[in-house]
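Z., the sequence and structure:
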Amino acid sequence: QVQLVESGGGLVQPGGSLRLSCAASGFTFRDYMMMWYRRGPGTEREFVARITSTGLTRSYADSVKGRFTISRDNAKSTVYLQMNNLKPEDTAVYYCTRGQVYWGQGTQVTVSS
C-alpha cells in the first residue's frame, strides 16, 4: 500500500532553516509528481510546492517562492523541502502528497522566537 512518511519538522527561530523529508513506499516513486501542502493554525490546507516525476519542473506558492526549494531523490524514493528564511507565518503542519489522494501524517513546523 502507498505510504508517505514526513520527518524533519521542529521549532526554529525566524530566519532559520529546516529540511523536511518525505519517504515514499508502495508505488513506483519515479513515475509520479509529488507535492507539499501545509495547514496553519485555523487555516485551510494550502499548496506549497510541486515537483514533476523527473525533477525537471518545480513550482511554488507565491508565499514561499525564493525561500523554499523542493527536490527529490528517485533512488531513495524521497522528496524534500528545504525551507530557508523561515517566518512565523510558515508555522504549520506540512504534508507530502501524491496526487492529493495519498497523504502523509504530517510534520509540525513552528517558527517562533
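The longest strand covers residues 18-25. The chain has a mean pLDDT of 97.

Let me know what you think.
H.
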